[in-house]
Amino acid sequence: MSMSGSSSRRLLSQLVYRSSRIQPVVPQTPRRLGVTIALLVAAGGCAWTVQAFPEYDISRHLRTRWIAQADAAALPNPTKGKGNAETRADPETSVSFPLYLKLSTPTPDLALVGLGVRKVSFLRVKVYSVGFYLEDRVLQHLDDIPGWQSFTAQHLLTPPTTNPSDPLGAPQLSGEALMRTLLEAGTACAVRIVPVRNTDFSHLRDSFTRALLARQKIARAKSEITEEDEARIAESLQTFKSLFPSQSLPKGESLVLIRTTDGSLHVESGGRLLGSVRDAWVAREMMLAYFADKDIISPVLKEDVAKGLEQYNRK
């Protein structure tokens, strides 16, 4: 079909005008093309699922996935560690802690609740970062445990009081007594310790032993333990001290104290079990030492755990 010169010019002008109004098309790189195809396949799969299985509530499935991802994102400073494992870093030391603890001994799933740094002397020298882990099953049902129905972070951070006008709502349990109810319910938990400077096992062993002896003295003054208990505890402490090898613990290596559901205390380092103490008092008091109402090992840890427990209790 022939076309006059003026007609050709008019057509060319129209094409130029129209092309000036068309948004430029971004070329499909292999990566963009792959994403586009994946989205189309996913959309087609959803449509097929709805048609093939009309009783399947896909919106509920998507909501569950979104809620799980939102819960994970709510954890402070989550990052990706080695092997793409999710971790959380101590802001004061940059030491990373896995969100879920993997141990060499069989234990229930233990989730990271909070972390902090241990400091000593008037110079506040940083010694180690410590993370507290609690049985995931218990975290999901905290309000089923007596004293935890209306828990807030301040309940753990506030020492016990007999004041009837307690703003936290007496006779609500508070302070260390709250953590005791968790452990007395047979809850598994652990503390993971990572030195921020080169040290040795004997230094940590002596620190733990001093904390346990101090708590034994308090229990004795309150008549909470008998003479038979005293003799058993003394023997268990000797066993506990013997678990720590006479060697160094380099900066960045981990030491884990695990309180099991049967009340035993396991000691692990480098993914290896160093030994166990089968004494419910020693295992419980070692964990409670980190949540004492006085002479707290790491105030930062206690505060962070309190916030973490409140977050779980609100879910």
Automatic annotation (TrEMBL):
It comes from Naematelia encephala. The keyword Isomerase applies. Residues 110-306 form the Chalcone isomerase domain. Keywords: Isomerase. SUPFAM superfamilies: Chalcone isomerase (SSF54626). The keyword Membrane does not apply. One of its GO terms (molecular function) is intramolecular lyase activity. This is Chalcone-flavanone isomerase-domain-containing protein.
